[in-house]
Design goal:
The chain is an alpha/beta fold and about 325 residues long. Helix content is about 35%, strand content about 15%. Strand 5, helix 4 and strand 6 form a beta-alpha-beta unit. The N and C termini lie far apart (about 70 Å). This is Alpha/beta hydrolase.
Length: about 325
């Protein structure tokens, strides 16, 4: 191969990866930023009579291994439900503090609500991947359960959720890791989290046109070495399974509420079909919401967004009801 041609291919791979990073890292938008009247029922004016916020509790050895716990005022009940919400940010940015309003609202409903930080992908630390982040989330749950117990909250069931990157991490815990959870996982809800990684679906990043670019980006995302030959033979599909939420869905998977924007150019909309099909084929109790006019933030379909949130409340009430 000529030197100029080889250099051109390398540049194309780098551009594809850079486009992904810029697009996805700017996607920390799954917050209740809508100002419509309907959003009021999913927010609260927090005061100390509602509960106590415990911040920056460590769960691992890394600097970012911390969580915030929002504990309801009444800890006299025999048991409580836990709702974990994982922040967005394209796996490279974001913070648990971004979801304070969501966590306060969940706490006000009577749940112990927890936001978790995890090690973000950085250019100077190629060891961090979606897989390593998911392992950190898995590591945090037993610590959360024990920390809650210290403050008088016996946790006996949980839901896990997130938006965008956080949605992917929530899926992985709910579908892949639930069997190892110290307390039963009863449901999962998420918006616009990538659940699958097929080159033809990630065409907006050029992965359908360049095996080299696909191998480069999928290696970064999975934390394992994926080669051009693996892309072309289809072997990469199995290599991406550890970070593909849809691939872990089975007949015992937890009830799920999910939403995607049909015009999403950050998390390719085509990826949602694999998750929906897996849930349907395995007879999982699920609700799927498609926002026809929206991109990554479900920003142009308030009615869909409201229906999604109403359904989340219904599933929480059904699967992890707050004890009176």
């Amino acid at each position: 191969m000529k030197k100029e041609e080889k250099k051109g291919k390398v540049m194309f791979i780098l551009i594809c990866i850079l486009v992904f990073i810029i697009s996805f890292a700017g996607s920390a938008i799954f917050k209740m930023t809508h100002k419509g009247e309907w959003t009021k029922k999913f927010s609260v004016k927090w005061n100390n009579n509602m509960g106590t916020i415990y911040k920056d509790i460590s769960y691992g050895g890394k600097e970012s291994n911390k969580f915030d716990m929002y504990a309801p005022k009444d800890n006299s009940k025999k048991s409580h439900g836990l709702v974990v919400y994982i922040h967005a940010g394209g796996f490279r940015t974001g913070d648990k503090a971004d979801d304070a309003e969501m966590l306060k609202w969940l706490c006000s409903k009577g749940y112990v609500a927890v936001g978790i930080n995890y090690t973000l992908q950085r250019n100077d630390d190629p060891s961090t991947s979606i897989y390593s982040q998911s392992m950190e989330i898995k590591e945090s749950i037993p610590v959360i359960v024990e920390e809650a117990k210290k403050h008088g909250y016996n946790l006996d069931k949980m839901a896990i959720s997130g938006g965008s990157a956080g949605g992917t991490l929530a899926m992985l815990y709910a579908y892949r890791d639930a069997k190892t959870s110290p307390i039963p996982v009863k449901m999962m809800f998420e918006m616009v989290g990538p659940s699958s990684f097929f080159t033809k679906d990630w065409d907006i990043y050029g992965l359908d046109k360049s095996s080299e670019a696909a191998a480069g980006l999928f290696s970064v995302m999975s934390g394992s070495k994926i080669t051009k030959d693996m892309i072309e033979s289809g072997e990469y599909v199995q290599a991406m399974k550890p970070v593909s939420g849809y691939a872990w869905v089975n007949k015992n998977s937890v009830p799920s509420v999910i939403a995607y924007g049909a015009k999403d150019k950050v998390c390719p909309f085509k990826t949602s079909a694999h998750l929906v099909n897996a849930l349907k084929e395995n007879n999982v109790d699920y609700k799927y919401f498609e926002a026809p006019h929206s991109g990554h933030g479900i920003q142009n379909d308030d009615k869909v967004f409201e229906e999604y949130m109403d359904t989340v409340v219904n599933y929480l009430d059904k699967y992890i009801p707050v004890k009176k």
